[in-house]
Amino acid sequence: MVADAADQGVRRLRMVEEQLAGRGLRDEDVLAAMRSVPRDLFVPGSAEVDAYADTPLPIGLGQTISQPYMVALMTSLLKVDVRSRVLEVGSGSGYQTAVLAEVAGEVFAIERLAPLAERARATLARLGYPNVRLAIGDGARGWHEQAPFSGILVAAAADEVPPELLGQLADGGRLVVPVGRGRHEQVLTIVERVGEAFHESHDTRCRFVPLVRDASPDERRKAAMRGSSAAEDWSPPGGEDARGDSAYPGEVAGMKSVDVRVSGAVQGVYYRASARREGALRGLRGWVRNQSDGSVALRLQGDAGAVDSMLDWCRVGPPSARVSRLTVADAPADETLHDFEVR
Ligand code: SAH
């Protein structure tokens, strides 16, 4: 199905009528924003899929662009207006970011997967939103330097309301976050700050990808002192923001070099060839090779954010792989590496 801009515009208006107004959403500012932001520009391959379908859609790296109704509902629950400063955690494709930028004064967005953040920045820049700043990092810690916020929207499911975010809410501000374990038990939770009190209420049940907590620099230092290279031992991406002029709180942008071991059904499933392509896509240096015990070993070296996003890929691998365990250990930088190869 190939759709031109006019077709997409027609679908967008129909989406607003059927999926949003049709479900009782009455917030006129939010409906207007949803009428104006072209979701198709945020959906990869939207010439082939219906970007205005009533469903989340894949955006790569195991993440999804949210269902339009969920984007509109969460925006409306925030109750923000042009005077508001808003924090968005988990900007993914940047679609929700754009919708927020239509209704709020300033939007501070954080995404932990660098390739998604880069793509979102490019799309947002193309559409022209001067009131958006997008940083790469762990948004569960909030954005201390820019706090307080009159609205905080979290687009990934947390086990509990993240305490750091409560501390960054302005008086009268609202936090909207899916809370719950597992994919089926999440509830859209709203916390309103009144002075030093926090009032919690609940909306619909929902289903989001998990909010992933990265280790703080302090926690990483402690782990390094213990010599830990345990499974699921990962580090946060180096920070930067859309203008590249100030580092994301607490993070140092930089290079990183790690040794990775992946176990499970990982040989004979194109793990190496896929890893080579994924590594090259991220501009990484290093190699991937099969080990005689059935595991796959990788050396990843490059921009810290790119290494972290490659680790996310390694945990899943190509479609027929089944990863049961992944270990990561810091490795010395190897100056002789110039590209990413299969060994
Ligand atoms: N509203 C977005 C939803 C993206 S899915 C959209 O419509 O495109 C949720 C996103 O949260 C994913 O991209 C995931 O990488 C990101 N995420 C998960 N944990 C995070 C964290 N701690 N900090 C920042 N982003 C996080």
Question: What is the helix content?
Answer: 25-40%
Oligomer: single chain
Number of domains: 2
**Unreliable stretches:** 228-253
How many strand segments?
14
Q: Under the CATH scheme, which architecture of the largest domain would be assigned?
A: 3-Layer(aba) Sandwich
Q: What share of the residues does DSSP label as strand, in percent?
A: 25-35%
Q: Could you give a short account of the major beta sheet?
A: 7 strands, mixed
Instruction: Give the CATH level 1 class of the largest domain.
Output: Alpha Beta
How big is the Rg? Answer: 21 Å
Secondary-structure element string: HHEEHEHEHEEHEEEHEHEEHEE
Summed up, the helix count is 9
CATH homology-level superfamily of the largest domain? Vaccinia Virus protein VP39
Shape descriptor: globular
Beginning-to-end CA distance, first to last residue: 41 Å
User: Going across the major beta sheet, what is the strand order?
Assistant: 5-4-3-6-7-8-9
Q: Which small-molecule species are bound to the chains here?
A: S-adenosyl-L-homocysteine
Mean pLDDT: 86
- Helix vs. strand class: alpha/beta
